[in-house]
Specification:
Blueprint: H1 10-16, H2 21-25, E1 31-33, E2 49-52, H3 57-68, H4 73-85, E3 106-113, E4 118-126, H5 131-141, E5 146-148, H6 149-158, H7 169-180, E6 213-218, E7 224-230, E8 251-254, E9 258-264, H8 266-270, H9 274-283, H10 288-302, E10 319-325, E11 330-337, E12 341-346, E13 349-354, E14 356-360
Parallel strand pairs: 1-13, 4-5, 11-14
Antiparallel strand pairs: 2-6, 2-12, 3-4, 3-7, 6-7, 8-9, 9-10, 10-11, 12-13
Helix pairs in contact: 3-4, 4-5, 9-10
Bound molecules: aspartic acid.
């Protein structure tokens, strides 16, 4: 993606002279920043910034290193999440991701590029290790936004991607265990009343794994871009599309405002388009953290069917949001939390930031 449509920030460029401090901290224990302030140590520092879900601690450093070398934010965030997509031990993203109910790995990814306002995404793509790269190509080399299934795979092959077996032994064994222990609590719902509580999946983390990586960044030119990539909900119904590849749900960015992305129960996010909501709240003046909390509350208010509620009428699932704004602030929140954190990096290195929580368990 070209970098011609940049809004220039001289002070950002000055920062480019600063050598790659991020690289120096790679592998060292990240600092933890309190969510109470919801700001970085260099609040309003005019420099590049990267955020990610917690599984992206190496991704934010990679993206920051590229940005400090002059990369566009989109190029940087995609290269950052590629590290997780190719990691066979992360069973929530890309290669090694948990398969669907039939044992087939189907991946979702989306990207958004602030300076051009363009977006690209792929959903239910099979056999392609780097769905985020394909989403970037949809943005750059088509006049469309979303490609799904076989069409998405054909498009990737056209651009030289090999079709590979993405099901690792670890993920296959997870799937077999799940398959052998099926209960009546899955995603195929028999006829039921909205007040039926004992129906559908129980989202107990030990039973169903979730995971995704979201990454957003501001580059040296002050441009913002975002990516979200995932294998989606483990053992999902084949063909299920989550929030990650849906622009406005799994991610949203606006070069004049900021960016937001999410992980967690995608269905809740699809019904509220919460990443778009967060960016709009920030446009109205909310801090990133306040905007993320607003989205959590919106999902909580929106959730009405009994099988998705706990005994106190609160959602029985979790969703996390991560956001940054053009002022150089970051913030995040989750519906259920207390200990959650997300990854970030500025020109001084990588660190973890506390996620605010809408509800905590005693
Ligand atoms: N949001 C993803 C989805 O619903 C899953 C996750 O983040 O764990 O597909």
């Amino acid at each position: 993606m070209g970098q011609s449509t940049t809004k220039s920030r001289r002070d950002f460029l000055k920062k480019s002279a600063v050598a790659s401090v991020a690289a120096a901290t790679l592998g060292s224990a990240p600092r933890v920043v309190s969510a109470a302030s919801s700001v970085l140590p260099n609040k309003k520092a005019d420099g590049p910034l990267v955020i990610s879900s917690r599984n992206g601690q190496q991704s934010v450093l990679k993206a920051m290193e590229l940005i400090q070398g002059g990369a566009d934010a989109l190029e940087a965030v995609v290269a950052g999440v590629n590290l997780v997509e190719e990691d066979p031990n992360d069973t929530s993203v890309g290669y090694g991701g948990a398969p669907n109910a039939l044992g087939i790995v189907q991946l979702d990814a989306a990207v958004m590029h602030g300076p051009t306002g363009r977006a690209g995404s792929v959903a239910c793509i099979e056999g392609i290790k780097y769905p985020s790269k394909v989403a970037k190509l949809v943005l750059e080399r088509t006049d469309h936004v979303n490609l799904v299934g076989k069409g998405a795979q054909d498009f990737a092959v056209m651009h030289g991607f090999p079709v590979e077996n993405l099901l690792t032994e670890q993920a296959r064994e997870m799937w077999v265990r799940w398959r052998e222990n099926l209960s009546n609590r899955d995603e195929y719902l028999p006829p039921h009343d909205p007040s039926d509580a004992i129906i559908g999946s129980d989202y107990v983390p030990q039973k169903r794994s979730w995971g995704t990586i979201h990454c957003s960044a501001i580059d040296l030119a002050g441009n913002i871009s975002s990516v979200t990539t995932t294998s989606g909900m483990a053992f999902k119904i084949p063909g299920r599309v989550g929030d990650s590849p849906i622009i406005g749900a799994g991610l949203y960015c606006d070069n004049e405002v900021g960016a937001a992305g999410s992980t967690g129960r995608g269905e809740a996010n699809l019904e509220t388009l919460a990443s778009f909501l967060i960016v709009e709240r920030m446009r109205e003046g909310d801090s990133p953290e306040a905007a993320c909390l607003f989205a959590c509350k919106r999902i909580s208010d929106h959730t009405k069917v009994a099988h998705l509620l706990d005994e106190n009428g609160r959602p029985n699932f979790n969703v996390q949001f991560y956001a940054l704004n053009t002022a150089g602030e970051v913030g995040g929140a989750e519906i259920w939390g207390g200990n959650g954190k997300f990854a970030a990096a500025n020109s001084e290195g990588g660190f973890l930031v506390d996620l605010a929580a809408l509800y905590t368990r005693d």
